[in-house]
Amino acid sequence: MKKAMSMEHLDAIEEIKKANLFGRGGAAYPTGIKWEQAYAIQKGPKYMVCNADEGEPGTFKDKHILSEDPFELIEGMTIGAYIMGAKEGYIYIRGEYAAIQKIVKSAIENAKKAGYLGKNILGREGFDFELKVVSGAGAYVCGENTALVESIEGKTGRPRQKPPYIKNCGLYQMPTILNNVETYSCIPWIIKDGGEKFSSMGTEFSGGTKLMCLSGNVNNRGVYEIPFGITLRELIYNLGGGIKDGRKLKFVHLGGSSGSCFPESMIDTKICYYDLKKAGFSLGSGAVLVVDDTHCVVDYLKTVMEFFEEESCGKCTPCREGNHRLVEILDKMTEGTATMDDFNKMKSLAQTMKTTSFCGLGQSAPMPLITLVKYFEEEFLEHINGKCRTGVCSMSGKAGK
User: Considering only CA atoms, which of 263, 319, 252 is closest in space to residue 286?
Assistant: First the structure.
């Protein structure tokens, strides 16, 4: 913090650009570019907002930062406030993290008592910054930045039309820097040790380290900080200890429920934004859900789509109706009553949702379906013919008899 206050604002932003830091919440937008663009906007007041909603299933990394080192986040946001000239900031924490909200509120009070928040921070006349914690209420869609901002304003958490973007027209229609917990928490390190050093810990296209959430049928579940560039296989087998009970890995669900699913043959892909994009995937929130061969892809997919059916905010028809119809078809598949016509409708509907939904939630909800059909189409066709190879589905309908 003290070093940041000794630097020219644009020099501090330049260090963040050198760090090659991409937003860790899922969108992977270059943080230095975002801050540079927001800094250039002349109107105000400007706001600092942290997305700590962490509603993506299988994602629990921000929980560790918030509960074990909240000062890192507070310092990152305060450095941002110093650069932008912001006087107010908000940390939007999911309602399920009620105990963690108390920890963060306590940390904010301690930072104020020590002179790191409040008025005339560290004795610098006019450098004032207040931080508040806002509790979410359990809506998945509030992980989307514009819906989150609406929620902070006391409105129903539904996404806004973009553009204008948050950096231009965010909280209370004012310029707003909105980043994820992990992203803000990288800022103090970058300012202290330099952007080039941070970048050198990753790859040419992905600077620094990344917190990865390993869950599912793996021996050592947990949060791992890894340098960009190791492979998914190294994460799952070296750090995660391999598949539980000696079973075979069937597929990996990467980036949360809205991410892609792919088979073991593709886990030698490097954890790097560029390499994953080249392979057709997105790192998303950093969740890695490992699924072994005891699971049925149709049954698994039905569970995922039921989640999206429940969490759709209902604003647009493709997402609201699309998720509902997909669950209906998957229900028929698990009962053994689906037809080829149902299968083709399901694929067509998924593409329609991807291209016509209003926000990222609806656009990404069909991704697990699209990728599971791509890599495991044979299992879907078996269900149409009344067979579930794992024996998980009831197949109680006509085809199953």
Answer: 252
